[in-house]
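Q: Is it fine to ask for two folds in a single conversation?
A: Yes, each is treated on its own. Send the first.
Q: Here.
A: Result:
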Amino acid sequence: METINVDPYNRNFNALVYGNVSSLHLKRNNPDIALKSINKSLEMDKNYAKGYFKRAEIHSTLENWTDAERDFRTANGLDSTMNLQSKIATAQKKVKEYK
């Protein structure tokens, strides 16, 4: 990606770029590729709450409910204004259904 090559050391900006690329792939119904992009994003910025939220959404799409719950919790812990309690509860319910 050319955008990231402009300044490979600007980790926060590049995390946003990978996050946006991830959203694009998810909208195009490519959750596996979206997951790879959001993982790169979170490697660059471990405190990117929206990145954890996006990854939780991808895990939900892939029905990886344990991972989704973990990431919703992490996102909510990093930014409590996201109000993810209902998403966490839904993921918890799905985890129990699949056990």
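Q: Second one now.
A: Result:
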Amino acid sequence: QIKNQPELVDFGVISTDKKLNDAERLEILADDIAEIIKKYKPEAIGIEKLFFTTNQKTVMTVSQARGVIMFIAQQHKVPIMEFTPLQVKSFICGYGKAEKKQVQFVVQKTFKLKTPPKPDDAADALAIAICTAHHYSKNLRLSQ
């Protein structure tokens, strides 16, 4: 392994049944995030910063999920790093308006995957993880 090269341990998505109410779905998310933290003991957690969107229903749901993730990370004393989609695309591809397929390609090559990560949400999360690994280790070097 190359020094400072992120290593892929596992990836996927947390899915909940759409028939459940919001509180039940958030509880599942909280439990799953807590289990992931206990299992993998991450040094930092990266999440996407919200940006303005015209879909109010989506922004509310995403805000609630972000809040749960931040709360669980804080409970476990795991530092949180936030990145906008523009920051992620700029770091991963060198261009803030990069297409989703370009980001997936770089993520695939970075982790030496045979195929692009699926679903798209998993690929986005891996891109954020790459940013987090880089910026977290950079911040550690600066503070030492």
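Q: Anything structural to flag on that second result?
A: Two points. The CA atoms of residues 48 and 83 lie 5 Å apart. The mean pLDDT is 89.
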